[in-house]
Amino acid sequence: MKLTIIGCSGSFPGPDSAASCYLVEAPYEGRTFRMLLDLGSGALGPLQTYIDLREIDAISLSHLHPDHCFDMSGLYVVRKYHPTGLLPRLPVYAPAGSDWHLSDAYGTTNPNGMTLPFEFRDLTDGLETTIGPFTLRAMLTSHPVAAYAVRLEHEGHSIVYSGDTGPMDELAGFADGADLFLCEASFVDSATNPPHLHLTGSEAGQIAAEAGVGRLLVTHIPAWTDRAEVERDLLTTYDGDYELVTAGQVFELSTTR
To answer: Which residues form the Metallo-beta-lactamase domain (predicted)?
Structure first.
């Protein structure tokens, strides 16, 4: 499995990164299977430095806030109007109603036009399904809209992505033993933070410590937030391997233990 950080800026694109988008790749049937976790604002541009957009095999959208899904509008154009012709429908795992939401966001002239290039499949709490070489599991998180953490497993390895979430006890169990835990930390402990929205560095660190993850990858830090403060908060609860990710980083897991 290979994880590439396409965009990791929290809440909106920053000067050094697009909003949330993560490319996960693994061998499958003699080729490389490519899946996106989120396709947030500004991500479609840098994504093209890594792959041809026609090579995307599947997408999982954690939730329907713009910084996690709005570049689906650009991908709609690619798949519908590509010079080689309409591309095959792409499976998109997303919260219920994503087809209509994204169709309205783009402004398609036909009712629910997003379903022409995309085949939407509902993410639900407790879902377990197979997508190419991956087993995907989903868990509802604590956020103002329906939002899901996802766990991808392949040949004994696992990547867990928190999506957006406030503190919740269940997340540590969901991330239990993950090789890579891609976890948001949008808030800092020194601020008065609204509930049921995001995590601080210390909260992300506590979850990672309880889950016993191999490596914590901290993401979704907004451009206006001091990354050094997030890191200081993290170190109050976590002493394991970690990284505050930046766009362009690549993390690889071998296919054998």
So the answer is: 18-196
d(CA 237, CA 233): 8
Using CA atoms, how far apart are residues 180 and 239, in angstroms rounded to an integer?
Answer: 15
Q: Which string of DSSP letters, residue by residue, matches the chain?
A: -EEEEEEEESSS-BTTBEESEEEEEEEETTEEEEEEE---TT-HHHHTTTS-GGG--EEE----SHHHHTTHHHHHHHHHH-TT-PPPPEEEEESTTHHHHHHHHHT-SSTTGGGTTEEEEE--TT-EEEETTEEEEEEE-SSSS--EEEEEEETTEEEEE--S----THHHHHTTT-SEEEEE--B-TTS-PPSSS--BHHHHHHHHHHHT-SEEEEE-B-TTS-HHHHHHHHTTT--S-EEE--TT-EEE--S--
Q: Which amino acid, one-letter code, is at 30?
A: G
Pairing mode, strands 128-131 and 134-140: antiparallel
- Say what the pTM is: 0.97
Domains of the chain by start residue, with CATH = 2-252 (3.60.15.10)
Give average pLDDT by consecutive 10-residue segment, the chain, 257 residues.
Answer: 98 98 98 98 98 98 98 97 95 97 90 92 98 98 98 98 98 98 98 97 98 98 98 98 98 73
pLDDT of residue 255: 57
